[in-house]
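Sharing a chain and its predicted structure for anyone who wants a worked example. Both blocks are below, sequence first, tokens second.
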Amino acid sequence: MGKGGFLAEPEPSDAVEAKYAADRADDGYVMNLTRVWAQAPPVDDAWTAFAGAAAEAAGLTFRQKGIVVTALAAAMGDAYCSLAWGTRLARASDAPTARAVLDGTDEGLDDEERTIAAWARQLVRDPNGTTAADVDALRRAGFDDRAILGLTAYIAARIAFSTVNDALGAIPDAELRAAAPAAVLDAVTYGRAAPA
């Protein structure tokens, strides 16, 4: 088992080193999930392009991305993305709001934000259970059909990302744990434990 989980360290290459260098530049260390995805850099690049295009089609702000990913990660029991995006959401709003999204109470969110959080959780739990009324709620929240497709595709991309990380044993980084506010740490009691 490598640092990234159940897979060995990727074979060295320029593409792998570019992924690692980007993490070091952005975060100061190489994330465990990057070690997983660096097994096939073109797959990582394709996922990144798809998720980015979907978020753009949806017109998502950074805060909205934080709400979506935090809500779906918690619904999936994905500790890695819950810690990472819960912390980002806390920075974009505050720690109690991030905790509320992790807990599913959504206190501190406006009606539009509550609607996208609910949509994200619905797609995790039962995508076949969606109804026209659910989509109409997104319309009432201000999303047109193009944005609804983009939002749904973004959520699906993030579910896929979390699934790959979780299935291949990516352990949340100690640095994520150290950076997370206490309210986020207290809420993330599921998934793979980050080292203390």
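Comments welcome. The chain is about 70% helix and 0% strand.
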